[in-house]
Amino acid sequence: MTPGEIAQEELRKKYGTLFDEVSALLFRHDPIGINFESNGDEYDPEARTILPRLPECKSEADVLAVVHDEFRRWFGEAGPIRNYAKIAGEIWVLWREKAIHPMPDSLLPEKELLLAAYVAFNARDIDAALALMTSDVAWPRAFKGGFVRGPEEVRAYWTEQWSEIDPHVEPVAFHPQDDGSILVEVQQVVRDLNGSVLADERVRHRFTLEGGLIQRMEVDG
Hints:
The chain has a six-stranded mixed β-sheet with strand order 2-1-6-5-4-3, with helices on one face. Helices cover 43% and strands 24% of the residues. The longest helix is centred in the first third of the chain and has 16 residues, at 60-75. The protein has helices at 3-15, 18-29, 44-50, 60-75, 85-100, 108-122, 126-130, 151-162, and strands spanning 133-140, 147-149, 166-176, 182-191, 197-210, 213-219. The model has no long low-confidence stretch (mean pLDDT 88). With 221 residues, it is of the alpha+beta class. It starts with a helix and ends with a strand. This is Nuclear transport factor 2 family protein. Residues 117-216 form the SnoaL-like domain.
C-alpha cells in the first residue's frame, strides 16, 4: 500500500463511514469537474487531507476555509471560495453528527432531539423548540436563577432574554448518565445587542427526557 492508502485506511478506522461520506459528497458536488460517474473514488485524496483538519474547526466558516485551502493545495487554482459553501455546510453537518457528537447508537434518537433543540434555540425558532418539550417542562432561568415551567413560561422567558442579550449555544459532546439523564457539553457565547462578547465559555447542560421529549434542563456549570 502507498503512504496515502495507509493514511486513508487509518482514517476509516478512526472515523468509520465519515471518510467515504465526505469523499462521496465531494464527488457529487464535483467542484473541479472530474466526475465521470465511473470514478467514484476520485476525491479520496482530498477527503484524506480535509478530515484531519476538521478537529480545529469551530464553525461552518472554518470548514469552508479548510476545504478551499485543501483544494487550492491539490489543484492550484480552485475557483472562488463561495463555490465551496454548500460542500462546507454538508461536511460540517456530517462532522457534528459523527465525530463531534459521538453517542451510543441506542441513544441516537435522544441526540437528534437535543441537537434539534439547540438548532431551534440558536435560530430563535421558539415554536420548533417548544414542540420538543413536555407540557410540564422545567427550564432554568440562566443568569437570573430559578426555573420557569411549561412551554408558555419558557416562551415568555426566552422572549425576554433575547430582548436583552444574544446567546448562542453550540453542543460539543453528549454523555449519557447512569440516572438516565444526558449531559451535554456546550460552548456558550453571549453577546450584547450591539454584538460585543459578554461571555465565551464551556458549560454543561443536563437534560431529563420523558416520552421522547425534554422534561427538564439544568445548568451544571
